[in-house]
Specification:
Radius of gyration of chain A: 21 Å
Largest sheet of chain A: 6 strands, mixed
Number of strands of chain B: 0
CATH superfamily of the largest domain in chain A: P-loop containing nucleotide triphosphate hydrolases
CATH topology of the largest domain in chain A: Rossmann fold
CATH topology of chain B: MetI-like fold
CATH class of chain B: Mainly Alpha
Largest sheet of chain B: none
Number of helices of chain B: 10
InterPro entries (chain A): AAA+_ATPase, ABC_transporter-like_ATP-bd, ABC_transporter-like_CS, ABC_transporter_ATP-bind, P-loop_NTPase
Distance between the termini of chain B: 59 Å
Strand order of the largest sheet of chain A: 6-7-8-3-9-10
Protein name (chain A): Nitrate/sulfonate/bicarbonate ABC transporter ATP-binding protein
Keywords (chain A): ATP-binding, Nucleotide-binding, Translocase, Transport
Number of helices of chain A: 7
Shape of chain B: elongated
Shape of chain A: globular
Pfam families (chain A): ABC_tran
Helix content of chain A: 25-40%
GO molecular function (chain A): ATP binding; ATP hydrolysis activity
Number of strands of chain A: 10
Oligomer: heterodimer
Helix content of chain B: over 70%
Structural class of chain B: mainly alpha
Order of helices and strands of chain B: HHHHHHHHHH
Order of helices and strands of chain A: EEEHEEEHHHEHEHEEH
CATH architecture of the largest domain in chain A: 3-Layer(aba) Sandwich
Largest interface: A-B, 26 and 21 residues
Distance between the termini of chain A: 54 Å
Chain lengths: ~280, ~220
């Protein structure tokens, strides 16, 4: 359990060919309290994954500072466990060996084995210790990835759309389990998602991010008792509130990509093109 | 003059069990290919990793390797015979050159094609630099290294036979000797041995290893 402090972080991608650069976000500050579950929510391209990668140490920020506990982040390390959208398991290792892969450097083989088995039990995979990743379903692979990240006993758990590629039923199951694991281990979790419901269901706070200019739009504190019921009025109200802002952001992204061709008000296929005078009059 | 099937089988028997000339020649050729192949795999593997990991090495040596690969290794024999003064070293040299480049290019491709997400994941677990090469890149590139080894064997075996026709000892030299004595039955008998070696290595070595590796790495079409 450690506090994550993101102070005035900027990320700019240089473009050498055109001699211009693209700033994803600037002066972004956010503090995640110890043991807190914070979601980063936003349209694609708003830099939520980039921000997570900077905290993970996989990407370098252009300026600003990220601190986990008292240490400033410079490179990836086992004090921050990361779960990606793809499980990223080593295909030549069994489930057990994959989890041991994360802790082999820290402990002896026997100890690592015991430790890994314990965490695989936590995600209900005791039956599949000696299976290879290609023999598992997508949800199971993601469970292994979670067990692997937890087994390092990281100070923070970083999750980058971990359930984005799963089907709805599997996702619902894993939501419950993540919540259970979070309550059990009391880890600080930073969770990237584009799913509003998922973020309300799981997090203490939701950080809504936007584009052009990129950055934090609004921070919602979710004060609903757990386990949360998606059908409750408060839940739906919050979902609507977030959707209102997020909808505008998404439209901005679409306009950016498709130009005047994009119009969320009506489908323009049935109208003649001569009637379309553009939006900038 | 013209070889007959029964004559060939007879020569095969005599050569292997009575006079033993085929047995000695076979042993000599096998020793050469095994040593040559092993060295080719080791050198090629090392070069492949180097080219796959280092951009500088790839941009400088990379095209050189492709150029060298397109030279049939037997072409090196005249120089090798001079350098090694007609010794067995010349034949080893040609066999190793025959296999090395195919191995190098395949290992290089394997290393380059390692999924970046695996490297990122390993980095978050505290793996760095050489550890990443040993623990992630090398195991991940084993399937294509196996393809490389297979090619290295095939090229090496061909190069060996060609080199022995000109050089000394082994099945190739025996083949030429048989021709000099107009013993076409023996020529065919040796050809049978050569193809048998190819079959055995293919079916009992490479096929088996490949099957195991592909199923473990989850690259077969069956399942999932």
């Amino acid at each position: 359990m450690e506090r994550v402090m993101i102070t005035e972080v900027e990320k700019t991608f240089p473009n050498k060919e055109k001699n211009q650069s693209f700033t994803v976000f600037k002066d972004l500050s956010l503090t995640v309290e110890p043991g807190e579950f914070v979601s980063l929510l936003g349209p694609s391209g708003c830099g939520k994954s980039t921000l997570l990668n900077i905290v993970a140490g996989l990407d370098q920020s252009t300026s600003g500072k990220v601190k986990v506990g008292d240490t400033t982040i410079k490179e990836p390390g086992s004090d921050r466990g990361v779960v990606f959208q793809e499980a990223a398991l080593m295909p030549w290792l069994t489930v057990l060996e994959n989890v041991m892969f994360a802790i082999n450097k820290k402990m002896k083989k026997e100890e690592a084995k015991e430790h890994a088995t314990k965490y695989l039990k936590l995600v209900h995979l005791s039956k599949f210790l000696h299976s290879y990743p290609h023999e598992l379903s997508g949800g199971m692979k993601q469970r292994v990835a979670i067990a692997r990240a937890l087994s390092m006993d990281p100070k923070v758990l970083l999750m980058d759309e971990p359930f984005g590629a799963l089907d709805e039923q599997t996702r619902m199951m894993l939501h419950k389990e993540v919540q259970y694991i979070w309550e059990e281990t009391k880890k600080t979790i930073l969770f990237v998602t584009h799913n509003i419901r998922e973020s309300i269901l799981l997090s203490d706070r939701i950080v809504l991010m936007g584009t052009r200019p990129g950055g934090i739009r609004k921070i919602y504190t979710v004060d609903l008792p757990r386990p949360r019921v998606p059908a409750s009025p408060e839940f739906i109200q919050l979902e609507q509130d977030i959707m209102a802002i997020l909808g505008g952001e998404i439209e901005k992204v679409m306009k950016e990509e498709m130009g005047d061709d994009f119009n969320s008000q009506k489908a323009s296929l049935l109208y003649g093109t001569d009637r379309n005078m553009g939006n900038h009059i | 003059m013209f070889p007959s099937p029964s004559g060939s089988v007879q020569q095969l028997y005599i050569g292997l069990f009575e006079t033993g000339i085929l047995a000695t020649a076979l042993a000599e050729s096998l020793q050469r290919i095994v040593i040559g192949f092993t060295l080719a795999v080791l050198i090629g593997g090392f070069l492949g990793v180097l080219l796959g990991v280092s951009k500088i090495a790839d941009e400088t040596l990379g095209s050189l390797v492709i150029a060298l690969q397109s030279v049939p290794s037997i072409v090196w024999l005249p120089i090798a015979l001079v350098v090694f003064q007609g010794g067995a070293g010349a034949i080893y040299f040609v066999v190793i050159l025959g296999g090395t480049w195919a191995m190098t290019l395949n290992v290089r491709m394997g290393i380059k094609n390692v999924q970046p997400i695996l490297l990122r994941a390993a980095k978050t677990m505290g793996y760095k630099n050489t550890e990443l090469i040993w623990k992630v890149m090398l195991p991940a590139s084993i399937p294509s290294a196996l393809t490389g080894a297979r090619l290295a064997w095939a090229f090496g075996w061909r190069a060996l036979m060609a080199a022995e026709l000109i050089g000394r000892g082994g099945l190739g030299r025996t083949l030429m000797d048989a021709r000099d004595f107009f013993n076409m039955d023996l020529v065919v008998a040796i050809m049978i041995i050569i193809s048998c070696i190819g079959l055995i290595v293919e079916y009992f070595l490479f096929s088996k290893i490949e099957k195991k590796v592909l199923s473990r790495w989850g690259l077969t079409n069956s399942g999932s």
